[in-house]
Amino acid sequence: MNWQSVAFDWNQIRAFLATVEEGSFSAAARALGQTQPTLSRQITALEEDLGITLFERGRRSMRPTGAALELIDHVRAMGEAAQRVSLTASGQAQSVEGFVSITSTDIVATHLLPPVLERLRALAPKLQIEIIASNTVHDLTKREADIAIRHGRPEQPDLIARLLGETTAGLYGAPSYLDRVGRPQTAEDVSRLDFVGFERGPRILEFVRDLGLDLTPENFRVTSQSGPAYIALIQRGFGLGFVTRDMLAFYPDLEPVYPALPPIPVPVWLVTHRELNTSRKIRLVFDTLAEELKARWAS
After folding, report:
1. 20 within 8 A of 78, measured Cβ to Cβ
2. How far apart are CA 33 and CA 36, in angstroms?
3. Are residues 139 and 185 in the same domain?
4. pLDDT tens digit string along 225-259?
5. Alpha helices of 124-212 — where are they, by DSSP H?
6. What letter does residue 32 receive in the DSSP assignment?
7. Rounded CA gap, 263 and 259, in Å?
8. What's the total number of domains in the chain?
9. pLDDT digits 0-9 by tens, 66-76
10. CATH code for the domain in which residue 187 is found
11. Contact call for residues 127 and 283 (beta carbons, < 8 A)
12. Separation of CA 44 from chain center
């Protein structure tokens, strides 16, 4: 390793990361227990050490520059590693205990969360974890859950959100169903086939029409808001359905349909409340989820 190439101080990096995640110098200073002038000096020193500008400063606002955004994933990884070092060195990870609830869609809870729980059990065996497998968005501000995995960025200012990455959704069907009805070559062909719906009502029709598919309620003869049931219905040949690419490893029998359909972007956010800055158990679970799941949705 070229040690002379490491030309910055960890406290400066910590100040930079806190500023990006908290959204302002004042909020970052409060989170770190510092004064705003101290934090501002650390950011300025880091900019001088790196030879770049990290924030565009206005009278009442600040925003990360393009150079800062290029660094942020690496800096977050450093922060997560530093947290693990602190917990491990002090033996605190083993002593972290208490109750933490995680909410996600039922299909994510089924396929992606169990390996993360194995890692958490090894790190902190005294933790008690509840998985709330639901496709309903729970309100973290009302403490309906401690941590959420969502496909939309929350708008509440008192929540902390981290973008884990982005997957895409496409149209899939069972080979047996496609053998029976034929493989569609045009949008008109697709619109004549049956679909499995993930909900009833006009919203799903608006969704598919935005994709160039002219569907009616008659196309959706079976619906389910359960992710595993939805996939099972597609596998059994009840119709076509939209599936994200991160789930295809679990359902390799599904066949892509109508490749001309553009991929549908699906972002994945990890969200929690401000207690992340004061609770060791929330921080440990949040950082472990981020580390374990980010590779799944890395772009």
Report:
1. no
2. 9
3. no
4. 899 999 999 999 999 999 998 899 899 999 999 98
5. 175-181, 187-191, 202-210
6. H
7. 9
8. 3
9. 888 888 888 88
10. 3.40.190.10
11. no
12. 31
